């Protein structure tokens, strides 16, 4: 069993005890809530330079322990100071050390300080209930991993997110996955440079696939970006935004690194 299959099997077991039907009316009520500030998609469309999605990530199967973050809002404060464009909050506990309460902590902190940087719920989505949880916790976007899901589940999650007023980041790793993603008429596509079967990272995936994504879509490069040279490679390939976790979590001064990304 490859790592992604293992994680998805665990995720379905993990949420089984709280699974319930989710009605369109419930999602629509969430969509009617006025959320101040830009949408996730709007935040990724800078006039100059790369937009930066900064990730709150304590550990990963590939990197092991990354950073000790008792309170996710502390890291959110650092990211606000760095003027990131969006924040990705990993809410998977078993493999990445996150929790859903991290998302609540971050969005509460942002609202308390009237700083409305949009948040992505980064998790392994398998059921519309997770979309409800994301919206209730203040997220403005969810992740849809194309490789991990069949088309029926992708349609269900995407429709649920749209009803709840959330953007969806479609994550792909290959040309075949790009073809599948495009059938669903996405607005944001991210190329994950990390092979989630083997957890090996290679920026050439972005260099190969980003130019094939239609230019009217928002293009994101995810994983394996540690410095401005890495960022410059994917920017040259067409990325409008980058998702960076480990490098920013480990950085003594994330403000400096984010500024260098923005200046490209």
Helix-strand category: alpha/beta
Q: How many domains make up the coordinates?
A: 1
Sketch the major β-sheet: 8 strands, parallel, barrel
Tell me the CATH topology: TIM Barrel
The Rg value, from CA coordinates, equals 17 Å
Element-by-element helix/strand order: HHHEEEHEHEHEHEHEEEHEHEHH
Under the CATH scheme, which class? Alpha Beta
The count of β-strands is 12
Q: Which outline best applies?
A: globular
Query: Could you report the average pLDDT, rounded to the nearest whole number?
Result: 95
Low-confidence stretches: none
DSSP helix fraction: 40-55%
Which strand order does the major sheet show? 1-4-5-6-7-8-11-12
Superfamily at the CATH H level?
A: Aldolase class I
Distance between the termini: 40 Å
The total count of helices amounts to: 12
Strand content: 15-25%
CATH architecture annotation: Alpha-Beta Barrel
């Amino acid at each position: 069993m490859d790592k992604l299959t293992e994680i998805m099997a665990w995720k379905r077991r993990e949420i089984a005890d709280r699974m319930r039907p989710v009605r369109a009316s419930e999602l629509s009520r969430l969509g009617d809530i006025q959320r101040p500030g830009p949408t996730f998609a709007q935040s990724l469309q800078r006039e100059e330079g790369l937009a930066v999605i900064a990730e709150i990530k304590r550990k990963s199967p590939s990197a092991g322990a990354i950073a000790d973050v008792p309170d996710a809002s502390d890291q959110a404060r650092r990211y606000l100071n760095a003027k990131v464009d969006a924040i990705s909050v990993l809410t998977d506990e078993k493999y990445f050390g996150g929790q859903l309460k991290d998302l609540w902590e971050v969005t509460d902190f942002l609202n308390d300080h009237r700083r409305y940087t949009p948040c992505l719920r980064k998790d392994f989505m398998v059921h519309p209930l997770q979309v409800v949880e994301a919206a209730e916790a203040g997220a403005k976007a969810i992740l849809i991993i194309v490789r991990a899901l069949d088309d029926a589940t992708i349609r269900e999650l995407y429709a649920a997110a749209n009803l709840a007023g959330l953007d969806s980041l479609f994550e792909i790793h290959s040309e075949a996955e790009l073809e599948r993603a495009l059938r669903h008429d996405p607005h944001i596509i991210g190329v994950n440079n990390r092979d989630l079967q083997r957890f090996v990272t290679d920026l050439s995936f972005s260099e190969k696939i980003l130019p094939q994504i239609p230019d009217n879509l928002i293009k994101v490069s995810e994983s394996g970006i540690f410095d401005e040279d890495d960022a410059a490679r994917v920017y040259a390939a067409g990325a409008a935004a980058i998702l960076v976790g480990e490098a920013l979590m480990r950085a003594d001064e994330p403000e400096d690194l984010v500024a260098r990304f923005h200046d490209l």
